[in-house]
Please model this.
Amino acid sequence: MSDAESTDEFEPVQVFPESEEMDLRPGADDCYKCSTCDSECPVAAVDDEFPGPKFQGPEQWRLKRKDDTETDDSVMSCSNCMRCDSACPSGVPLSQMHNTARGSFVENQMDKLSREYIRNRILSNYGTLAWFGSKVPRLANAVMSSSVVQTVNEKVMGITAEREFPEFAEQTFREWWSERDGATVQSDEKRVAYFHGCYSNYNTPEVGKAMVRVFESFGYEVMVPPQKCSGTPMFANGMLPDARRAAETNVAELSAAIEDGADIIASCTSCSLSLRQEYPELFDLEGIEDVSAHTYEALEYLRIHEDLSGALEESEVDPRKFAYHAPCHARNQGLAGQAIELLDGVEGAEAEDVGDSCSGISGTYGWKEEKYDTSMKIGAEMFHHMEEAEPDAGMTECPTCAMQMEHGTGYEIRHPLEVIAEALVE
Amino acid sequence: MAIESDVLVIGGGLAGASAAIEAARGGASARLVTHKENTLRNASGLIDVLGYHGSDEPIVEPFEAIPDLPDHHPYRKVGVDAVRESLALFDEITEGLYEGGHTETNALSPTYGGRVKPTSRYPKSAAAGLASRAEDTLLVGFETVTTFDAPLSAERLDSSVPFEVRGVTIPFPGEFRADARITRLARALDADELLDRENRTGTREALAERVSEHLGDAKRIGFPAILGDEEHREVRETLEDELGVPVFEVPMGPPSLPGMRLEDRLYEALETEGVRVESGNPVVGYTADEGRITAVSVDRGRREIPYHADQFVLATGGLVGKGIDSTREGVFEPVFDCHVPQPEERYEWFHDEAFDDQPYARFGVAVDDDLRPLDPEGDPEFSNLRAAGAVLGGYDMAREKSASGVSLSTGQVAGRNANEDLQ
Model:
């Protein structure tokens, strides 16, 4: 072969051995070190010890190509808000790299008998905890809110005593669903499967009920398939085997619903992001791409498939002003402006965006005793803007952002679906 | 079905923001979709209109030089009055943040590499550094901010300007990681973090103290552009009070604080005008009917969501912003696949010397006087699509120093024409 011919058969030099697992090399190579991710990282903004997403992602990935290099433990300080993903102008899959590094750190370097591991395992399996709690909600609420238990939690478990544990509902969403005998609307054309997640099942069933009422008012048959945690808290704690087990159930059940003609709807933006993005990025399961492609956030779905703005323009709610915070995970799905745009059309509702900062709680992150201060420092900007807005209530799609908003400002927090349900159904 | 607006702008940089603001001011419902953080964070924050054309001598009066540009240059498409108007709009939006609107003459701003650069508008924070002030200058760099080598920059500047320039490198006050981000240092100045709790010395005062011993006869002091983010005005004022001479920022590469401040201001203006802004997902395709685009599709991860509109503006950027892309076979515009004029032979895309007048630098879509992209036959690709900013071809922004002026003016004209064409 002549030299002229060979120029078009360019092969990059193999610097690193072929990856046997997920190939993150193209992602690492795409980083041109502009540091936009670092300047957008809410943890790096308040924690000088945290080296930032550029290190956690591409730089650490490169360092790890050497056999004797361990994952730096700072990866556990990443809150998995995933803002770096939407910051990167070069398409580096930062959160995928962080999730992978964190998973490897927990599996290979973390002492499985350490307090941190046990605490993280419990926090990331919130659904299991909540399942027990919901069996005896009043007792559980009384126990969890006792200051003695809170102190023990902090001293023994490393769970901050600063926060009020979320109350379990006296009737879970699923209990309500079976009591009402499931769907009241049947349709072969318009069908959705509701992924309620742990929180709207055990803690805020009113969000799930609002979702059902709104979708039924548009003529949708709602299915509620069996399901486990979306994996969001597990990813954030590097508990990938737990997340994978839950994913196996979810992908099988949701695939069956898709088979029945349904699209998947979530009311929690972290659940929808997980099914959409983290599932196919981290697991290779039969049907996982299909589940990803059929998953939507609830209002996003109606906005695409129905004339939701038109319906809202003729609607009305009791006059109230909301201070709206867009969760980072909603932002990543391009949904940050959606609630404000929809509520602008509803007579009586006024919604003010409290800015693009992170709430700081990031699921289980702000529950950890050693992360609590960081979490509150990140949230300070949002608290300040909420108070400036002087609302009647706060509003967000994410249950843990809602906890943080309430904790930082004292305002009651609503989900947009609840207000939309009030506008369209009640 | 349901995501609708009169005008949909694709791209969230200077061109896209100008287009959306102008369309909204004309009465249209405007929506702007942008894929990622825009490239303003990678930009110096200087607003250049035209710095060079045809020689190595900087242009003094950019508006007078515009008529000499070739016919296919974007400035010739919109006309010199439109360029003036777009700067007036910029001045209005950035009131208090920018200077330079008092004259049509180019200013000469020092760069971090130690050159001077002709520019039309500059952040207020850079004003005291202009070469036209001809005052002896001290440049101060920081040990950990390795992207600004003050002594080297000073040495180069000193050899080309009619005043004396010295440079020193000092440690940034306070205890930071050796690789502390410049945004972290900016925030320490913003908050005036206390270094010494007993004496209650803040970062700003401590910085002034460290610099003062190097001041000498200098009549002004330049720092890399990291002097605060939201509180940049106060940071600069404190330093000036403490040091007794004007203080300025030298524009820097990414992440650029002046670029971020400009971005904040532009996005505030979008909100004020009622423009709906969405970020996080790319526009990847479209549907059209009889030469009119009916909707574009936004890729929300493994599914494409239609966004309907009556008029569309393509402001996706150039080779850096990925509004223009290439393979080894050709150069293309990825959203609408608009025609991008290019030599057939790949070896004619470039010249061998890196700083030659490079053909690839001019790659982009060709447009008519209404800024509608043209197909290979010279007819509009679509009747309701206009293009603005770096996606346009026919000019070399890096060589001419014309990027911001082209973005602002073509953006505004595209937004205005889109609004006027609403059906």
